[in-house]
């Protein structure tokens, strides 16, 4: 019994076309560059990210300009210790409006950090000069410095705090 | 049934079906793996989270990271220059045309050093010596000898700087070639000379020409100094500290002003560590390699490449274009002929080339022109190479290489075509010839950026990075559009841009500004003259050094730097 070859049958034609197409793709690979630069590494080897990694601008804040960053509106949360302003948005659960330490958001928290207290008395009203911290004991100052180290490692230093008229 | 009639299968169907399956698997699964994972190429630098107003954030190499420590030395015990010539490495290697082992090299260095102190009468810590030599073994021996006795050496990057340097920093001694001697003597007469000079001459000179020098200038032969030191008593000085400045490299800024870079032992050991880090660990520089460099030993980077070669035990030579001092007005161009000039020396075929952008351009156009001679095959081969690069893969041993490119490379480079395994290019490469160069060479190509102030490279790309970005059309005013990026900062360098437009950065544009760098391989710059080196609105304290070059940072952390100088 001889082999039967019928090129005209649809299946054979379809397979043949597919084979020819694939062979053509193998021998003549496409080298056209995509019209738009890919922004994902999965979309292409020559890709570039859509945007730069986010960076914060180091700013000088006063008690009045720092206060809006209390996070109650869902925005950034900043707090200051000893004149250094930290961006604690990552710790919204602690420093946000519902957090345990929410009192400190947008304020100078130096005294509270030193005395290990979150009461409202630790905070100086915004329109008054900054808390000079002169009446703190040495161990309280040490405690505050320890908190500064903790914050420096965990959060981003993004500015400094100066008196209301000085910025 | 009508449908059954259409779906008739026969033996041809089975055959075609098998072929179709094979072809399908071949086409879809046989995709080459990228040499560098594209995730890494999207994040080449580690970026700081905060930036000062008017400045960009801090950028460091991703592998070092923002918290990593900078490598200051390539290995634990390499602290000063003399440690680079390792005593436990026995195999001789060829430096330019001399086959020499480390033990012999150390002996010659100590002989020359003793000769300098005794015979030529140089005083450690007080005297300084101007090295006016073309790159050669004598340059290296003099360099190591001076460093071991803590006698600072001066080098100049171009002969036009000679008279300003002689006027502002008169050295106690000059080491130069015999054929340059009359010129030097003339210059010394022209400048005021109340100091004693000693001139050590490499090669034979005419004693009569020297006769009129009188008692003020003492001219001796280099070989005499070395033999005096070898035969006399060995003088050893105290080991210098790594932070001692042992060389001052004079170069011209882009405004033509004379600048000097004060480099310490630590700068060079950090530079060597950075050069080693440019190549991957598995294919790094080893003792079987031969390095050919287009960077003159009178520049800081050129010296670092030479020191790296000596540390690793490679053979080493520099190309003809590094010759700074030649009486004939021969135009030494940076092209293929220059690369082939190393064939005159007796080094083995180079495996690693440290060349400049013009060399690369010349190489790529010559090889491509040669390859185009086999017209039909070339277009095929080129197409497949580009398709491979679109997947991130390139090799110099594929079918297409064997059919087309090997012959082309051999026709252009001769024996070097088979031996070259990595090329490091310094200087801005234009995107127009980057891809053809990658196809033509098909070896790992590192695009780096160097500066006379820094002993090591400042920026370098991944060696196997073959990303191709679209080149914009000719009419764009952006000066950065046509040059390729130079990658991220080197492993022990951190960089930032100053003078940037804050608003455009906040809107997500690429930062553009003046480049400032900091790191253990960067020397201190002192401007000679009234004007300061670079007017930038930022601190020059805290160790930041301004390079005076405009740069732009891409979103993947790679930098594009405009050539401030040639």
Automatic annotation (TrEMBL), chain A:
GO terms for cellular component: endoplasmic reticulum; membrane. Keywords: Endoplasmic reticulum, Heme, Iron, Metal-binding. The keyword Glycoprotein does not apply. SMART domains: Cyt-b5. Its main location: endoplasmic reticulum. GO terms for molecular function: heme binding; metal ion binding. It is found in: Endoplasmic reticulum. Residues 61-162 form the Cytochrome b5 heme-binding domain. Belongs to the cytochrome b5 family. MAPR subfamily. This is Cytochrome b5 heme-binding domain-containing protein.
TrEMBL record, chain B:
One of its GO terms (cellular component) is membrane. InterPro entries: AMP-dep_synth/lig_dom, ANL_N_sf. The chain crosses the membrane at residues 12-30. Keywords: Membrane, Transmembrane, Transmembrane helix. Gene3D superfamilies: N-terminal domain of ligase-like. GO terms for molecular function: long-chain fatty acid-CoA ligase activity. Residues 99-523 form the AMP-dependent synthetase/ligase domain. Pfam families: AMP-binding (PF00501). This is AMP-dependent synthetase/ligase domain-containing protein. It comes from Piloderma croceum (strain F 1598).
């Amino acid at each position: 019994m001889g082999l039967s070859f019928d090129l005209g049958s649809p299946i054979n034609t379809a397979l043949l076309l597919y084979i020819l197409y694939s062979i053509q793709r193998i021998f003549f690979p496409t080298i056209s560059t995509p019209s738009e630069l890919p922004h994902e590494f999965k979309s292409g080897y020559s890709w570039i990210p859509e945007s730069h990694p986010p960076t914060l601008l180091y700013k000088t804040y006063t008690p009045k300009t720092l206060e809006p960053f209390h996070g109650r509106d869902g925005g950034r949360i900043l707090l200051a210790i000893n004149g250094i302003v930290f961006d604690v948005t990552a710790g919204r659960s602690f420093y946000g409006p519902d957090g345990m330490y929410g009192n400190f958001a947008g304020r100078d928290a130096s005294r509270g950090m030193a005395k290990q207290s979150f009461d409202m008395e630790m905070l100086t009203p915004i329109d008054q000069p900054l808390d000079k911290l002169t009446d703190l004991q040495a161990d309280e100052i040490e405690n505050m410095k320890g908190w500064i180290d903790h914050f420096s490692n965990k959060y981003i230093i993004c500015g400094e705090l100066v008196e209301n008229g000085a910025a | 049934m009508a449908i059954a009639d259409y779906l008739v299968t026969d033996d041809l169907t089975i055959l075609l079906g098998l072929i179709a399956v094979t072809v399908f698997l071949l086409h879809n699964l046989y995709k080459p793996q990228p040499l560098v994972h594209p995730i890494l190429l999207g994040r080449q630098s580690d970026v700081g989270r905060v930036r000062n107003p008017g400045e960009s954030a801090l950028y460091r190499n991703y592998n070092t990271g923002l918290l990593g420590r900078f490598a200051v030395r390539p290995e634990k015990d390499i602290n000063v220059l003399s440690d680079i010539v390792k005593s436990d490495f026995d195999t001789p290697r060829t430096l330019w045309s001399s086959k020499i082992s480390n033990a012999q090299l150390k002996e010659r260095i100590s002989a020359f050093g003793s000769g300098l102190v005794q015979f030529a009468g140089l005083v450690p810590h007080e005297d300084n010596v101007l090295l006016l030599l073309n790159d050669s073994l004598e340059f290296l021996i003099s360099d190591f000898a001076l460093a071991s006795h803590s006698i600072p050496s001066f080098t100049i990057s171009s002969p036009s700087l000679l008279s300003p340097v002689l006027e502002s920093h008169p050295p106690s001694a000059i080491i130069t070639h015999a054929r340059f001697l009359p010129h030097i003597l003339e210059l010394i007469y022209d400048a005021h000379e109340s100091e004693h000079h000693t001139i050590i001459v490499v090669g034979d000179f005419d004693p009569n020409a020297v006769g009129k020098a009188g008692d003020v200038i003492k001219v001796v032969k280099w070989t005499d100094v070395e033999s005096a030191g070898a035969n006399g008593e060995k003088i050893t000085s105290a080991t210098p500290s790594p932070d001692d400045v042992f060389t001052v490299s004079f170069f011209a800024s882009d405004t033509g002003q004379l600048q000097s870079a004060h480099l310490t032992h630590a700068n060079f050991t950090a530079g060597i560590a950075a050069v080693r880090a440019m190549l991957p660990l598995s294919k790094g520089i080893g003792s079987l390699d031969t390095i050919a460099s287009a960077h003159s030993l009178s520049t800081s980077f050129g010296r670092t490449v030479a020191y790296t070669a000596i540390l690793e035990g490679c053979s080493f030579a520099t190309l003809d274009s590094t010759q700074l001092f030649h009486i004939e007005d021969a135009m030494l161009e940076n092209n293929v002929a220059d690369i082939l000039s190393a064939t005159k020396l007796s080094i083995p075929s180079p495996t690693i080339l440290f060349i400049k952008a013009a060399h690369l351009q010349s190489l790529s156009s010559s090889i491509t022109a040669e390859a185009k001679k086999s017209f039909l095959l070339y277009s095929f081969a080129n197409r497949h190479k580009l398709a491979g690069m679109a997947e991130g893969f390139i090799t110099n041993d594929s079918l297409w290489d064997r059919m087309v490119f090997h012959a082309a490379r051999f026709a252009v480079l001769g024996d070097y075509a088979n031996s070259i395994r990595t090329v490091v290019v310094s200087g801005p490469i234009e995107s127009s010839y980057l891809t053809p160069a990658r196809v033509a060479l098909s070896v790992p190509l590192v695009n780096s950026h160097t500066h006379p102030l820094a002993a090591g490279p400042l920026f370098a790309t991944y060696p196997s990075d073959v990303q191709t970005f679209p080149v914009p059309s000719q009419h764009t005013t952006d000066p950065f559009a046509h040059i390729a990026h130079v990658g991220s900062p080197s492993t022990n360098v951190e960089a930032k841009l100053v003078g940037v437009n804050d608003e455009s950065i906040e809107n997500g544009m690429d930062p553009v500004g003046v480049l400032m760098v900091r790191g253990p391989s960067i020397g201190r710059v002192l401007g000679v003259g009234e004007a300061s080196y670079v007017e930038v609105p930022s601190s020059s304290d805290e160790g930041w050094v301004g390079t005076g070059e405009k740069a732009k940072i891409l979103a993947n952390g790679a930098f594009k730097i405009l050539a401030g100088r040639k």
